[in-house]
């Protein structure tokens, strides 16, 4: 479901810049190809109020060095089996808890922890079941990604996010249409 492939990766950036980037809603038809922009998706929480997950398009325009470092690091860690370009990197911002779900637009991903990334816990259902979220562990497993840690994740498996802080939580991410087993074979053969 998830597997740590690296730690102590140097990701020092000025995250305060992220607050100044414009946000548009998922439904918007505004240009998202030629500038950094947060695409905001709305989700309901279990309490019935709103939570938000946003994807930053084109973070390489603000953090070229970090984005180059990320693709180089992933190429190195994968023995050159994965060669993404810096344009493939997006950042994720979560605000509030995300209820159990599986991702709609990708099968697996690589997440890179940025500053304060560990202010949220990502949990996975061991049985890939929504019902598990009514139970106590051991049916649920999870982790808090720390700054400089890199994880591969099976985002088609039912998962949720519990936010610990009231501040937004940021990550860098690379999306894959290949199943999680593809990434696991590369990074943990
Ligand atoms: Fe997700």
Structural notes for this entry:
By secondary structure, the protein is mainly beta. The protein has a single domain, classed as Jelly Rolls, CATH 2.60.120. The protein has 2 helices and 12 strands; from the N terminus they run E-E-E-E-H-E-E-E-E-E-E-E-E-H. The protein has helices at 64-77, 180-187; strands at residues 2-6, 23-25, 37-44, 50-57, 90-95, 98-101, 108-113, 120-125, 140-143, 150-153, 159-163, 169-176. The chain has an 8-stranded mixed beta sheet, covered by helices on one side. Strands 6-11-8-9 form a 4-stranded antiparallel beta sheet, with no helix packed on it. It starts with a strand and ends with a helix. The model has no long low-confidence stretch (mean pLDDT 92). Bound molecules: fe (ii) ion. Fe (ii) ion binds at residues 101, 103, 155, 159.
CATH topology: Jelly Rolls
Rg calculated over all Cα atoms = 16 Å
Average pLDDT works out at 92
Major sheet attributes? 8 strands, mixed
Assign the structural class, choosing from mainly alpha, mainly beta, alpha/beta, alpha+beta, or little secondary structure.
Answer: mainly beta
Count of distinct strands = 12
Q: Helical amount among residues, as a percent range?
A: 10-25%
CATH superfamily: Jelly Rolls
- Cα shape: globular
CATH architecture: Sandwich
- Assembly type of the chains comes to single chain
Order of helices and strands: EEEEHEEEEEEEEH
List unreliable stretches of 5+ residues: none
Integer count of domains: 1
The level 1 CATH classification is Mainly Beta
How far apart the termini lie comes to 15 Å
Small-molecule binders = fe (ii) ion
The tally of helices reads 2
Q: How do the strands line up in the largest sheet?
A: 1-10-7-12-5-4-3-2
């Amino acid at each position: 479901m998830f597997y740590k492939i690296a730690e102590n990766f140097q990701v020092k950036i000025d995250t305060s810049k992220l607050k100044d980037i414009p946000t548009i809603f998922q439904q918007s038809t505004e240009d998202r190809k030629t500038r950094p922009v947060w695409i905001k998706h709305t989700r309901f929480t279990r309490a019935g109020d709103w939570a938000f997950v946003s994807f930053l398009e084109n973070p390489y325009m603000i953090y070229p060095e970090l984005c180059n470092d990320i693709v180089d690091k992933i190429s190195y860690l994968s023995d050159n089996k994965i060669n993404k370009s810096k344009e493939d990197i997006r950042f994720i911002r979560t605000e509030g808890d995300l209820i159990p779900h599986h991702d709609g637009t990708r099968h697996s991903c690589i997440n890179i922890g940025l500053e304060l990334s560990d202010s949220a816990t990502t949990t996975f259902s061991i049985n890939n079941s929504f019902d598990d979220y009514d139970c106590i562990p051991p049916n649920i497993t999870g982790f808090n990604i720390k700054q400089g840690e890199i994880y591969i994740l099976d985002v088609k498996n039912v998962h949720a996010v519990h936010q610990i802080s009231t501040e937004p939580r940021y990550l860098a991410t690379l999306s894959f249409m290949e199943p999680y087993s593809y990434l696991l074979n590369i990074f943990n053969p």
